Automatic annotation (TrEMBL):
Belongs to the tRNA pseudouridine synthase TruA family. It is an enzyme of class 5 (isomerase). Homodimer. Residues 6-101, 142-244 form the Pseudouridine synthase I TruA alpha/beta domain. GO terms for molecular function: RNA binding; tRNA pseudouridine(38-40) synthase activity. The lineage of its organism: Bacteria, Pseudomonadati, Pseudomonadota, Betaproteobacteria, Candidatus Accumulibacter. Substrate binds at Y109. This is tRNA pseudouridine synthase A. It comes from the Bacteria. NCBIfam families: hisT_truA (TIGR00071). It holds the Pfam family PseudoU_synth_1. PANTHER family: PSEUDOURIDYLATE SYNTHASE, TRNA PSEUDOURIDINE SYNTHASE-LIKE 1. Keywords: Isomerase, tRNA processing. The active site is at D51 (nucleophile).
Length: 272
């Protein structure tokens, strides 16, 4: 039997998703919890490997087992043994040819940036911070150039192992909610550090250091050295992994996450 799980986690205290020597990863925590519940080792495969400090509300994994358990039991059992910063949201039996990574049609990442003079103590590790005023109209104009099929080599980390840098960007939205600037990206797949590198360059444009057309120039250059530095992991969330309807997975993508943040004003496209 193949089972899919949706997992959410606060990545602040983990060394990223991927299992590695010395432990301390989200995958380690999840597999240990499943083993304690099932009393046999279980290996999970994820939809997207998140880096150290990156959070997730809708990470999807799958594993194979010969054990007969209800889906409710898998959720309750895993959560009983997981640390407080990790929780399973749902479990679903899936066909044997389902694959958490290769069956996905798109991923939704959100970057949350606190844009005010002083940093936050309460939201340390959960949002990034930038103290210079940002022009959202310039950032939105630049983000529009990311849509469609593009070669994102200029926003690719040197250690990225993806076969191709060409991805299809389906959505690139930027909004302001009070002191928060929220950047949403949906694409077929993402390169290593791609979102954080995009945010760095969009912020440079919003700050007035470059014109909006600079994004197009970076895409054409395919040169990572020309783009802005990588932004911190703290503000990045894997909101959802989307699948074709034929797999029958739940569609609650946790996109209402913004309501959990300390928003202090209506959404607007203009810089206050």
């Amino acid at each position: 039997m193949r089972v899919a799980l949706a997992v959410e986690y606060d990545g602040s205290g983990f060394r990223g998703w991927q299992q590695q020597p010395g432990g301390g990863t989200v995958q380690d925590a999840l597999q240990e919890a499943l083993q304690q519940f099932a009393r046999v080792p279980l290996h999970v495969v994820c939809a997207g490997r998140t880096d150290a400090g990156v959070h997730a509300l809708g990470q999807v994994v799958h594993f194979d087992t010969t054990l007969e358990r209800s889906m409710y039991s898998w959720v309750r059992g895993a959560n009983t043994f997981l640390p407080p910063a990790v929780a399973v949201r749902w479990a679903q039996r899936v066909p044997a040819d389902f694959h958490a990574r290769s069956s996905a049609s798109s991923r939704h990442y959100r970057y949350v940036l606190l844009n005010r003079m002083h940093r936050s103590g309460t939201w340390h590790g959960r949002v990034a911070w930038h103290h210079h005023p940002l022009d959202l109209q310039r950032m939105q104009e630049a983000a529009a150039m990311l849509l469609g099929e593009r070669d994102f080599s200029a926003f690719r980390a040197a250690e990225c192992q993806a076969i191709s840098p060409v991805k299809i960007m389906q959505r690139a939205d930027i909004r302001r909610h009070g002191d928060l600037v929220v950047l949403d990206f949906v694409a077929t797949a993402f390169l290593h550090h791609m979102v954080r590198n995009l945010v760095g360059s969009l912020v440079a444009i919003g700050q007035g250091r470059h014109h909006p057309q600079w994004i197009g120039e970076l895409l054409a250059s395919r040169d990572r050295r020309l783009a802005a530095p990588t932004f911190p992991a703290a503000g990045l969330y894997l909101i959802a992994v989307n699948y074709p309807a034929r797999w029958g997975l739940p569609t609650d993508d946790a996109s209402d996450f913004l309501s959990l943040l300390p928003v202090t004003g209506p959404a607007t496209a203009a810089t206050p």
